[in-house]
Amino acid sequence: MAGTTSTVSGTAAASSRTRRAPADKHDARRNQLAESALTTLGELGYARTSLREIANNSEFSHGVVHYYFHDKLELIVYCVRYYKAQCVTRYDAVVSDSTTAEGLLDAFAAKLVETLRDEAPMHRLWYDLRTQSMFEESLREAVTMIDATLEEMIWRVVSRYAELAGRPTAMTPSAAYAVLDGLFQQALLGHLVGQPQALDQIASQVHGLMPLMLAPAPS
Amino acid sequence: MAGTTSTVSGTAAASSRTRRAPADKHDARRNQLAESALTTLGELGYARTSLREIANNSEFSHGVVHYYFHDKLELIVYCVRYYKAQCVTRYDAVVSDSTTAEGLLDAFAAKLVETLRDEAPMHRLWYDLRTQSMFEESLREAVTMIDATLEEMIWRVVSRYAELAGRPTAMTPSAAYAVLDGLFQQALLGHLVGQPQALDQIASQVHGLMPLMLAPAPS
DNA sequence: CGAAACCCTTGACGACTGTCAAGACTTTCC
DNA sequence: GGAAAGTCTTGACAGTCGTCAAGGGTTTCG
Q1: A209: Cβ contacts below 8 Å, ≥ 6 apart
Q2: Which candidate from A48, A131, A175 shows the least CB-CB separation from B128?
Q3: Least CA distance to A43: which residue of chain B?
Q4: Per the domain annotation, does B142 fall within a domain?
Q5: B61-116: per-residue pLDDT in tens?
Q6: Which of A132, B1, B27, B134 is the most exposed place for a label (fewest CB within 10 A)?
Q7: Which residues in chain A have Cβ-Cβ distances shorter than 8 Å to B144?
């Protein structure tokens, strides 16, 4: 199991300067552990994930976690922030590539269905952590920051949708995020429980809801 | 609220035959333990709640739980169902007492704020359990049943609101529940995190959203 | 009264957890 | 080469968990 890491770093930039990368290598290990942790967390949830299980899903032993992270909470928070960077730009292509309101709506709904299908474990982990922050104060800072980032992400979609439709928005960013998040969470639950129509349903629901976020057409 | 019938029958016939109530007393103890468990669960969350802690919040010792429940999961599921009975009728008075659409909307928003303020621990417990059901299959049956019941509860409000407004509904029960649940969950999180404006915000957001659930006025 | 059923406490079990110290192994650098 | 720094494993610690058996206490009823 062990020793594989040395082969990786050895085969990579062995020619020029294999050394002289203390902080970089340190961060690389932290990210590597974070990815193993995120896999385990998405599989088992926050409560049932132990440091030994995280280490089992990596190529290291359980003691190494405490070498790179002060304690379990620091690892979790690091994971949450690491995860954030991956999902914030999820809909940026949708916003920039669309030229009509209907096209943006279709692309947005399709992207929702796609991430719901392909990244369900990560999404349920996010909802798990956000709910745990209702009980555990130490999670709140990271959760609040990510929640704000997600709200901004959604608002970029909604405001661009309004711009393309030529109609002003009729909701606050906060409300728009909340209602779309409610639909998404319901679809995620339905999808995980095994309802086959959950994916189609979220698409049609979003198609029905988004026009309501704009002021009525002047007509 | 749930097992009130058995309690009543037990106290009523106490004079004539104090005995002959094995199932009734058994159920009363189960409900008593369920209430202690719900208090603890609302305080600590599902993950950090142990049977010993539940027993500490009651007047019994930790071993008694296993006398009335086969295992921890049976207690939790029993608690969830017990909790359901208390919240399903929450908005029934709002529906039956309102005579105008505006009056219903005001009363509904006020009730949302009230339960958000007074019963926050129970609400975060519900969201905790619903999220845990995304990971733990054994919780799904009870959670799915309660979720459907809540959706019906919300739909009674929305459809009555449409009736009073003289306009047809423009959303499915599923979508109406999802968007309102999203707003509620956001407000709960904000309230628990200490945002003072969370309660006022949910009221105004609901006032803005509910009219959008109806077909546009004929004008 | 005395047997029997019921209720509850106590204490212990094996398993699991986060944490951390001790040491082996590897890499870096003079 | 050899000291020094960095990296990782191993093993153990104190604690908590769900579970359950053994045995008092209490109540019920013939």
Answers
A1: A179, A180, A183, B175, B179
A2: A131
A3: B135
A4: yes
A5: 999 999 999 999 999 999 989 988 888 899 999 999 999 999 999 999 999 999 99
A6: B1
A7: 193
Candidate from B134, B192, B208 with C-beta closest to A189:
B134
Q: What is the pLDDT of residue B16?
A: 30
Judgement on whether residues B102 and B116 belong to the same structural domain of the protein: yes
Please identify among residues 68-127 of chain A the ones whose CB lies closer than 8 Å to any CB of chain B: 124, 127
Q: Which of B134, B183, B189 sits opposite A192 (nearest CB)?
A: B134
Beta carbons of A193 and B140 less than 8 Å apart: yes
| Closest amino acid to nucleotide C25 (CA–C1') | A3
Query: Which one-letter amino acid corresponds to residue A86?
Result: Q
Same domain, B92 and B200: yes
Structural domain for A26, as ranges: 18-81
Alpha-carbon dihedral A141, B131, A43, A188, rounded to 10 degrees: -100
Residue B213 CA, chain-centre distance (Å), reads: 23
Q: What is the pLDDT of residues A134-162, one digit of tens each?
A: 999 999 999 999 999 999 999 999 999 99
DSSP for A17-58?
Answer: -SS--HHHHHHHHHHHHHHHHHHHHHHH-TTT--HHHHHHTT
Tokens encoding A101: 């309101």
pLDDT in tens, B111-169: 999 999 999 999 999 999 999 999 999 999 999 999 999 999 999 999 999 999 999 99
The angle subtended at Cα A25 by Cα A19 and Cα A27, nearest 5°, is: 155
**Which chain D positions come under 7 Å from a protein C-beta?**
6-11, 16-22, 27-29
Does the beta carbon of A21 lie under 8 angstroms from any beta carbon of chain B? Answer: no
A52 with A132, same domain: the answer is no
